[in-house]
Design goal:
The chain is an alpha/beta fold and 316 residues long. It has helices at 3-10, 57-71, 87-94, 126-133, 137-147, 170-177, 209-221, 230-234, 242-245, 287-298, and strands at 24-28, 75-79, 99-104, 117-121, 155-162, 184-189, 257-263, 267-269. The chain has a single domain (3-309), classed as Alpha-Beta Barrel (TIM Barrel), CATH 3.20.20. Strands 6-5-4-3-2-1-7-8 form an eight-stranded mixed beta sheet, covered by helices on one side. The longest helix is centred in the N-terminal third of the chain and has 15 residues, at 57-71. The protein is globular, with a radius of gyration of 19 Å. The structure holds S-adenosylmethionine and iron/sulfur cluster (2 copies). Residues 33, 35-37, 40, 42, 80-82, 105 line the site of one iron/sulfur cluster (SF4).
């Protein structure tokens, strides 16, 4: 085999995801994670998330560059698993995109991403976060955030996933992070799987409404710290949220996002949506879903498409 043939064999082309633009994409650069959070959608057993499946750095860089050019991807979110387990790759790959972003558990520190966004995941104050993310994780992440250089031109946000079990910590969490060197604190709601029996979901969405009320109140009290649109949050109320999700995602505007999971044999696979395959759209709490709807349907701005654009039937 010649050197050129070998190079072609190793640096194989990406999976064909059809035509069309995807202004935003996310990529699971690794299926490996050092934590095992109780709410995590990535490792649900119907998702391509086998830790043995890997793509080497050079192949991944080539593939995401090809996909960037083919689908006009502007914004890439690097996630996993824990993306900082492959920090060198992520920092190199981030240079390929106009708008790079990383979401990390921050147990390996806070990466510098000049001009970009780093989202640090914490799921409440210490006494709520650690039962979800693991003993000692809150203090470790807090130390990493406090140690970062606030002048490194990186926008660092802290994000809490609100569930039926930790929502009472919302206001305490805001107080905790108030003086941290961050750009703000973001919230999203739990995305359950179909027939979710974890106790993390709100079976009756009307029970989630008072938490939305509290989040709106928190935003009004601290408009600079709490990063949320009141208009977006209002779309999440139980009497209207289905208009923006649908029972099976038929109203969801996340069709402009290409989710790249790491599948069998280290090949990219697209899942039903960014939250994986076996999702309960009727109870979806993804802030980004409602924010897309807010911008497109209410404000008439932005490039968002129904997710039915790439799947003609409800679930793969
Ligand atoms: C899957 S993690 C991957 C990146 C990294 N390991 C981390 O924890 O930030 C990305 C984000 O999804 C959130 N997340 C995990 N499971 C979720 C679920 N079922 N619903 C909503 N968000 C979830 C995590 O809390 C985290 O903020
Ligand atoms: S750290 Fe992130 S990827 Fe790992 S289990 Fe937790 S939420 Fe999932
Ligand atoms: S993001 Fe869209 S497709 Fe995915 S669970 Fe939410 S509503 Fe369904």
């Amino acid at each position: 085999m010649t050197a050129n043939n070998l190079r072609e064999t190793v640096l194989r082309d990406p999976t064909d995801f059809g035509e069309g633009d995807y202004p935003t994409a996310l990529v699971n650069v690794t299926n490996v994670c050092n934590l095992s959070c109780s709410h995590c959608f990535v490792f649900r057993d119907d998702n391509p998330a086998d830790a043995r499946d890997k793509m080497d750095d050079a192949t991944m860089l080539r593939q995401i560059e090809i996909l960037r050019d083919k689908h006009n991807i502007k914004s890439m979110l690097f996630m996993g698993g824990e993306p900082m387990i492959r920090k060198d790759l992520v920092m190199e790959a981030a240079k390929l995109f106009e708008i790079p972003a990383i979401v990390t558990n921050a147990t390996y520190g806070i990466p510098k991403l000049p001009g970009g966004l780093v989202t640090v995941s914490l799921d409440g104050p210490e006494h709520m976060n650690d039962p979800i993310r693991g003993d000692g994780v809150f203090q470790k992440v807090k130390a990493a955030v406090l140690a970062r250089d606030p002048d490194d031109d990186t926008s660092v946000m802290v994000q809490m996933v609100l569930t039926a079990q930790n929502h009472s910590g919302l206001e305490e969490f805001i107080e905790e992070v108030r003086e941290w060197p961050i750009s703000g604190v973001a919230f999203t709601f739990y995305v359950p799987r179909a027939n979710d029996d974890t106790g993390l979901a709100w079976d009756d969405l009307a029970d989630r409404d008072p938490v939305i009320d509290r989040l709106i109140a928190a935003k009004k009290k601290d408009p600079n710290l709490v990063k949320a649109n009141v208009g977006t949050l209002e779309l999440m109320y139980s009497d209207r949220c289905l208009e923006y999700t649908g029972e099976n995602g038929e109203n969801c505007l996340m069709g402009s996002t290409l989710p790249l999971y790491m599948g069998d044999g280290g090949r990219f696979e697209r899942t039903f949506c960014c939250f994986g395959n076996d999702v309960d759209c009727s109870h979806c709490g993804g802030y980004v879903v409602f924010n897309s709807a807010y911008h497109k349907q209410i404000k008439g701005e932005g490039e968002y498409h129904h997710r039915s654009r790439y799947f003609s039937k409800p679930k793969p």
